[in-house]
Amino acid sequence: MKLAENIKKLRKKKNWSQTDLAYKIGSHLSHVNRIETGKYRPSLPVLIKLAEALEVSLDMLVNGGEEEAIREVKIEDKTLAQRLKLMDSLETEDKKALIRIIDSMLTKNKILQFITNNQAVTV
Q1: How confident is the model at residue 70 (pLDDT cuts 50, 70, 90)?
Q2: Helix (H, G, I), strand (E, B) or coil at 14
Q3: Class of domain 2-65+75-117
Q4: How is the chain split into domains, by residue range?
């Protein structure tokens, strides 16, 4: 249960109890406990609340930490590679905005895949 493990790891990283996390997402301790033990798969709205409370992207919440996300990437599309290089010339806030847009598009795709793969479990 990678999702359950990720939530627990991120919660502990913030030194929060399950009660703390439950309060921050407007839920009950038993609900958070069932999520972290893999007995309950949260709905998309709950995933969003968890990601916001834990201050991570939905992608990181569902798929894992930064160490798993950072991989060497070979970009074969030359125009994409050029655009990525030009991103370094942007101001910090513009870079952050562009990254948020990219993250949201990628996260949407991964969430849809996650939901499709777990349709048998109703929440």
Answers
A1: very low
A2: coil
A3: mainly alpha
A4: 2-65+75-117
